[in-house]
Amino acid sequence: xxxxxxxxxxxxxxxxxxxxxxxxxxxxxxxxxxxxxxxxxxxxxxxxxxxxxxxxxxxxxxxxxxxxxxxxxxxxxxxxxxxxxxxxxxxxxxxxxxxxxxxxxxxxxxxxxxxxxxxxxxxxxxxxxxxxxxxxxxxxxxxxxxxxxxxxxxxxxxxxxxxxxxxxxxxxxxxxxxxxxxxxxxxxxxxxxxxxxxxxxxxxxxxxxxxxxxxxxxxxxxxxxxxxxxxxxxxxxxxxxxxxxxxxxxxxxxxxxxxxxxxxxxxxxxxxxxxxxxxxxxxxxxxxxxxxxxxxxxxxxxxxxxxxxxxxxxxxxxxxxxxxxxxxxxxxxxxxxxxxxxxxxxxxxxxxxxxxxxxxxxxxxxxxxxxxxxxxxxxxxxxxxxxxxxxxxxxxxxxxxxxxxxxxxxxxxxxxxxxxxxxxxxxxxxxxxxxxxxxxxxxxxxxx
Length: 448
Fold this sequence. Notes:
alpha/beta, Aspartate Aminotransferase, domain 1, Aspartate Aminotransferase, domain 2, seven-stranded mixed sheet, four-stranded mixed sheet, 14 helices, 15 strands, 16% strand
């Protein structure tokens, strides 16, 4: 293809398409992707790029997996769609629920399917409210989440999301959502020197519960590793203390595994790193490697039994819940995850990527922290490493570094001046090393 192809497509795009996070200025010079293989994307001009973020954290198996395409084709041929409402089911949905029960947390054995992560957040909020009403505690409706937490942008999910740039255009937000500081070892500052950073950050939850009134709080939702907020890995003692607090005040612990589920962090699900079991989980993205829009929630045996005993219907429904084609793709994806040991690959390859980034960029006068867990890594750029002072927003350091990585053949995303990397789990080791070199070169090009 000639170099005018992508430009022509972008002109046509601008005439009719509204994009997620739509910004005409931000779309100038954008990419139009026409192909992909493994960890690489191919643009309309025929140029190849490393997919530094697995699409949007989801395409862990990479592009071109015929097993997933074949599963969709076969299911569409047999039964493309059927309702998943009470009174209808299909074999693929039944099989997927069985498979999930075998691999998720041992207390979670019942599942509801959605089309993605935002719908899953809304489903868990409604499930939590429903549960507490059945337990004769109808005032327990509030949701506590964390600053820099990302849980989607449907209206309720947006209120749980703790990234405030998502809010102003759509105010007023729904009442009853509270945000506490996140357990960022690099930036969290505690006034209590008698406990560790992890315990102090977890105690922010107890403080918020007491301020709101324990009888009003339904749930605390958290990503095991915060993704879109900048790959924030909590201290090891954080989630065990969170579990204690939730138990003490009868608050449901919701693990948002939309990014961390299905091997991304080096374990099948994120909280396994700390031996913690949640009451509710939510998942999406890697369950189909992005080949079909599918997500869902998993509920504890206690919640499922309470629902069953009540005899009351749960008045929540999506047209595409338990979509047979989506479930078929998910089943094929679980085969890949298990056969190719995605958790083990992510653990080993993620350690290589993180070590490479640290070797190439540690000691740079504007690299504040290099962090990660499994195949989730980030480099945080700062004006002053001694104090952690950030660059002025107008300097657009992160955006400029991203432009330089694109010019060198790698496409990813930034949160401010934090450059995130979460490539497909199938990425080859040489490509991981290339990613390190590209980011190091881009860093030098922008900030010396």
